[in-house]
Write the structure tokens for this entry.
Amino acid sequence: MTIRKAVIPAAGLGGLLYPITKVQPKEMLPLGRKPAVQLVVEELIGAGLTEVCIVTSRGRRAIEDYFSFASDDGGFGADRDTFATALVEKRVHVSFVEQPEPRGMGEALLRAREFVDDEPFVVALGDAVITGTQAPGGLVQRMEHTMEATGCDAVVAVRTVDRAQVSQYGVVTPIGAPAGKAHFMVADIVEKPPIEEAPSTIAVAGRYILQPLIFDYLEETPPGFGGELQLTDALRRMVHDRESIWAEFMRPGERRFDLGNFLQYSRAFIHFSLNDPEVGLSVKEYLQQLVMG
């Protein structure tokens, strides 16, 4: 199995990050030197994908403008950077569709149905950056191998979180004991459950591989959490219809960074700044000075 296509939902309002998201998508917020969405696209390129569709919102062209340098003629001249070169040399094409109103990730994916056509595809959340997934054997590649080996209809990336955090994520119920396993079959999945109702502490990590069957389920799924069409709800309907869904654990060394609120964003920005090869040491020294008073 060779998966070529990926969809990046990036049409949310980013309300918890106001006012910095009033005029730009949160996916364009910098993490160190790069906007978050670039880091997501770099991950997908590293996994071998060549077709990327970003779902954007009305009136916010920042993401499209940022990728405009990757035109078909490759006209970068002396200003060509490493990322732009990778897009050209690996023949990666980035396209866009618009989601006029923020009606949930499920509705955003429906906007990309024509782009996906009849192929399995990756979904990578544009506000969730995962590090440590370099090929070979990166997270998306392992998910692809699991789909090929099991013949399942969907694979979701997962990680274990503190119980206090489960209400922030989709949470899965495993079949059998998942301890020590790289992947497992999913018995159920629920979107942002209350802490006392969470079936486990295994949370969806913002990466999926889906068969086109998902679109039929999305069309039949009513709005759920927050009045929005949730991908998690469609996946849950698939599980209940005995469609096969598997989960792939993130490995030690793979780390997810969220941009869901200002604290999460601040931590992510600091992490990437500290790992900058040019200024990371100076940033570390400055933080040490602040902590020491």
About this structure: The chain has a mean pLDDT of 90. The radius of gyration is 19 Å.
